[in-house]
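User: Quick one: structure for sequence A, then sequence B.

Assistant: Sequence A:
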Amino acid sequence: MRKIQLIALYFIFIFNIPLMANNDYQKMGENILADLVAIQSTEDMGLATQASKYSENKLLEYGFSQSNLQVVGLEEDKKGLIAILRGESSINPTITMAHLDVVPSVENSWDTDPYVMTEKDGFFYGRGTSDNKGGAAALITSFIRLKEENFVPKNDIIMLLTGDEETQMDGIEYFRDNFDSVKNAAFAMNSDGGYVTGTMENPEAFLLQSAEKVYMTLSLHTQNKGGHSSIPRKDNAIYDLARALKKLEDYQFPISFNDTTQQYLEFAITKLPKDDSKKLRKLLDVGENFKYLDLINENPDLNAQLRTTCVATRLSGGHANNALPVSASATINCRVLPQEEPQKIVDMIQKIVGSDIEISMVWVPEGSPPSPVTLEIMNLIGNSLKNVFPKAAIVPYMSTGATDAQALRNVGIPVYGTSGIMTDPSGFRAHGLNERIEISAFHSSLDFWYESMKQL
């Protein structure tokens, strides 16, 4: 028996035979995801560092050296993990990335406990299952699987797990600014962007996120001398602000394309009814002179792809029930197209609302230029999909939300959103109630990341 065991180990080592079957890694991924969901890594709970340390310990358990693992960051409760799968060379490494923090949950409104991963009707329910602990679990599992198989990539593969993507995004900047290996990366693959459309039975497209809008937040502020509410006047800080917000609501920023959105529209045209398809084809042909604006204005998703958007998200004003307000403020969140200058958007808003409205910057935007969709990247994704979604088209896509990717893109590192996860048939649930991920979709993402990393 001992001789047979030694022969088996010899073949495992020589021929790189996996130590575990694929379904064993699926179970491992599920367990890691469940453990991560149980860690309430919201800003208020401050347990992102605990999630990072859990991830570090899991890698240590499967043979990773402590010298290749660091839990670091600016704030004690928001530290992230940098882990390295060593390759033949440390020059031009590649990055894989995810975030471990989540938005808070209104627990009594959920059908299940958001911090206990629950299997129900073919889905895993729990906060972070889709945004973005499912991605983190896939990266960790793939690292372990490759380590178990004694896989040595040509160049180092770096895994970055951040702890504050949903808030300040300081973690990714810390990795970028303090690790030469990160600054010198050839490119990055982000599990927090890009997805597969259709259904598991009938997949349509792998949306390769190669661009994202720039996040910018402004404050509109009005002031007034105030007075007694029993003697109202025409000048009123709240009314002045309300009129300014109405002007902003009615304004539509110009239509603008970049290479990514143009390629995405080429694909979207094929999925629309015939009349709408013809109209969108004219949009691609004539650009800003497009006359069928209702087609865009009545479709929030399409509108967000083609325009900078700014929307009021918070309000405050007044100081007493029986006094005229001396001030009023509104928070405006803008998602700026990556090819546009944020300051020009601020100037435009000032022109729209008038010079009497004070505008200040709450969140200073950082540039996030689109990443080039090269043949190399297309081949990498295509080869990774062969055993998962072989018939899915690969379509460049711009995310309307912001991710950690912008901190790398703005220093010249191309980033590609490649979650590999099928969209939820009921719609987007991240940040909302009853967040979930289809179990078969999670399993397919494990296969996708494993195949991707083997090519790296």
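Sequence B:
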Amino acid sequence: MRRRRDPRRPPAEPDQPPGDPAEGGGLVEQAPPGWRMRLRTRMMLAFSVISLTVVVLSALATWFLATGYMTSQRERSAVRQASINAELVDTTLRQEPELYDRLMTNLFATSDTAVLVILDGSWRSWGGLSPDDLDEEFRREVEAGHPVLQRTRLDDRPVLLVSQPMPEVSGSYVEAFQLDELDRTMRFLSVTLVATAVAGALVGALFGLRATRTALRPLAELNAAARAIARGESEIRLPATRDADLAALAAAFAETATKLRQRVERDARFASNVSHELRSPLTTMVNACAVLVRRRAEMPASAQAALDLLADELGRFERLVRDLLEISREDQADDGIWEPVDLVELARHALPGVDIEVAGRNGAAAGRGGAPGRSLPPGPFAVCGDRRRLERVIANLRENAEQHGGGLVRFALIPPASDGWVRIEVDDAGPGIEDADKERVFERFARGSTTARAGGGAGLGLALAADHIRRHRGRIWVEDRPGGGARFVIELPAAGDRPG
């Protein structure tokens, strides 16, 4: 039996699940140049794509197999029923033609089908099916006496047209079978398969997230340990594990951390020993220089110039030794004495003769801390910390401004607002600091380009200031001062418990 397809509409296609490659779209957009997704995101998407691909392929296979089976079964059933009915009509027309009308009425009354019969080129219809509902090619096949099978739509309802020839009476029998139930079943199946594909993708994503968390946990632990080592916590180690590969990594990390700690301790001991060994001869030289300075007026001009140069170099040498001693004290984790500190009082003590600007909460100047007779409440400017370290920070910033920044032009204290940070601003009148040096100036033995060109300074003052501020859980950075120069900014947490 030849099958014909309704030329008035395109062939029915199964619903494609979202994300199918046939739609022309992918699950992941192409990353722009220079941008990469995180490893965890890539792995999760990979699991999602793999699970979606497997589920979609399974769904498509299930769709084609199930719909093909259901359609073929329905067609065989319709052809069998139409053949029986056509044989019954043929027998009735040949043996008892007077019963033909009653037979056709009974056939139509006992089923939900519609019937067309052509006898000697004349069409008769039962059930609302007319020859005009058939396309031309189907009609020609029926009139030629050929068996034909066609799926089409009549009155917006899917039907299956089956034609069976009746050669004994020179006619053909055509019956239209409704396919509403089959169509509903296919729609339900397509929705179920699409939902299954979406659920499979979500399950794959969840499984990928769980798997990546498990797989990347050692990497996260390694990252956290490396960051702790970078912060100076040399006792950090990776947790023990039974995995052979991870155990080797943990052992290598522990060995590296141990060697790094030993190297740092060795360097700290070297700096401490050298500094202590230099203190005695340095003290002798400073005292001898002081004696010479007192008798400077008795010396000739050339000797006075040499003495001035010697006094300057000894001052630089003394500051260098003092900074080295401070570094060795920092590396040995000297906790110091932690207590409530009033920054206004501390600034007055550390910067004698300097006007201390005290700003209100809105940032406007509220007074001058150095003004005679001015009494300021310590509450808004109280922090918990080591007085010696904080005083050293202020002294180092003043010394940096005077030596490399053209002099100190402003020292301001700003009380905390809603963020709970007390702010210190130190402005100088120098050429400013280039953007490339704004972070590097806080490294040990690092000097800005302007300092290097000017000569002088070992690059330890700002590094010590940054170390002290970090011990107080504070922040320090440098920015451009409005009008030119550099502005060093310090933020410290307001008074509370001692920083941990």
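The chain is about 50% helix and 15% strand. The longest helix spans residues 39-95.

User: Thanks, that's what I needed.
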